[in-house]
Write a structure and sequence with these properties.
Length: 419
């Protein structure tokens, strides 16, 4: 698992048992959860459209949509890592809660046994044949299984981000749980790694997938395909066949407008505050040469991104450029209004300055780089609840939705107080 010449520092020696212990615990938990359902003699059934909830009840059509349509409620959001997907998750949670939709939620932790491929048995209270409206937590995508949970008219959506920035972000966020990076010396580990990735990387090592084509991995594909491997294009075609809309994090507002259009939702439904954002001082700016190396290293992800960036702009074109500009402007205006209403000081603050633990975001090991918000004290009561929901980080929201997160909390406790 380690490279030759790897030197165990005191810190690393202290980390290993905890990481191994936690991993073993998570794997054991996933195995027991899976076995329970496998024993059941009922054969796996798919959710039929006839019993699925397909309309949110009272609301009819989105008021600012031209065509007559009714809001869509059956949604698969494939939550990719480090792509602003937490912000989308918050939007989905609020919509689902407001319209009393049924979420397929993970059990005891905040993901579906990631990085293992998704199985229905990982869903909280799952019974074969049951129907859900929304699936949106972290998973390693597995269409065969996901499709059993949702009615056949469900819409599949995901989000991609420039693979270079994603790589930088994942490297920063996960390096403490990727043993491969521990042996890299120097104070710029990322550049060091990219100068000679093969010297450090091994596909079999624990958590190595965070370091190479993480998007490809999240979609359930082989993340170690070589440059120019024809299977890369085949997998990209697969994504375009399965997903009705692929959002692009760099064009976040435009993405939300396309999402709203696809789902026939209202502008109010897609208002947001950026969640899980890293303070800029912790983001490494990469020079062009390093960027080129990162691209080459994440070639499959790069091809994926390039393809869907192109189709994204075709869709913007089809939507109408001017119409898009107008809608983005309106979205920004209403978001600014919400920020002024809800957020103390109108902007994100460093983790140490967040007063209420309910609004403190999850942090990577040994860091406090993820920013958060304080709720204003003087909000009128009707606005208070929506403001609070918009500011609630992913883990706390999941807990509010009824998931008992003991595995995640235990890991959080080890991470914050022991490591
Ligand atoms: C639908 O309308 C009824 C009566 O107006 C109300 O009690 C109920 O909460 C509404 N349901 C939703 C989902 O908004
Ligand atoms: C994405 O598409 C836009 C519009 O065509 C283009 O300006 C931009 O350079 C593209 N980005 C990448 C990384 O291909």
């Amino acid at each position: 698992m380690f490279n030759k010449g790897f030197k165990c520092t005191a810190v690393v020696r202290r980390l290993i048992p905890w990481i191994v212990l936690t991993k073993v615990m998570l794997v054991l938990y996933c195995l027991t959860a899976t076995r329970q359902v496998n024993i059941s003699p009922t054969q796996e059934k798919t959710c039929p459209l006839s019993v699925a909830k397909t309309s949110p009840g009272n609301i009819t059509g989105s008021p600012d949509s031209k065509q007559d349509c009714s809001p869509k409620v059956n949604i698969m959001f494939m939550k990719t890592h480090k792509t602003a997907s937490s912000t989308i998750l918050n939007i989905l949670y609020r919509f689902g809660e407001k319209h009393k939709l049924r979420f397929a939620l993970p059990d005891r932790r905040n993901d579906f046994c990631y990085p293992q491929p998704f199985l229905c048995s990982q869903v909280k209270d799952y019974r074969p044949g049951e129907c859900f409206n929304i699936v949106c937590n972290h998973m390693r995508f597995n269409y065969q299984e996901v499709s059993k949970l949702l009615p056949p008219n469900a819409l599949y959506v995901t989000i991609l981000r420039d693979p270079v920035d994603l790589f930088e972000s994942a490297f920063h966020y996960y390096q403490k749980i990727i043993p491969l990076t521990w042996s890299i010396s120097g104070n710029n580990k990322l550049t060091e790694f990219l100068n000679n990735p093969e010297a450090f990387y091994s596909p079999e090592a624990i958590n190595s997938f965070y370091l190479k084509n993480l998007l490809f991995f999240d979609f359930g594909f082989d993340n170690n395909l070589k440059v120019n491997d024809p299977r890369v294009m085949k997998e990209i075609q697969y994504v375009s066949k399965r997903f009705h809309l692929v959002l692009i994090a760099e064009y976040f507002e435009e993405s939300l407008i396309l999402l709203k259009d696809l789902l026939c939702w209202s502008m109010e439904d897609i208002l947001y505050f950026k969640l899980n954002v890293r303070r800029t001082s912790s983001v490494s700016r990469l020079d062009p040469e390093t960027r080129a190396k990162a691209l080459q290293w994440n070639w499959a992800d790069w091809k994926l991104y390039e393809h869907f960036n192109a189709t994204f702009w075709e869709r913007v074109e089809a939507y109408g450029r001017t119409r898009m500009e107008r809608d983005v402007k309106e979205l920004k205006r209403r978001n600014a209004e919400m920020r002024a209403t809800c957020i103390e000081g109108g902007d994100a603050v460093e983790a140490q300055r967040i007063k209420d633990t309910h609004f403190k975001p999850w942090q990577p090991i040994g860091e406090k780089s993820i920013m958060g918000y304080n709720l204003r004290n003087d909000i009128n009561p009707e606005r208070r609840s929506i403001c609070a929901k918009m500011l609630t980080p992913e883990i706390q929201y999941l807990s509010d939705l009824g998931v008992n997160l003991w595995v995640t909390r235990l890991w959080g406790w080890l991470k914050d107080y022991i490591l």
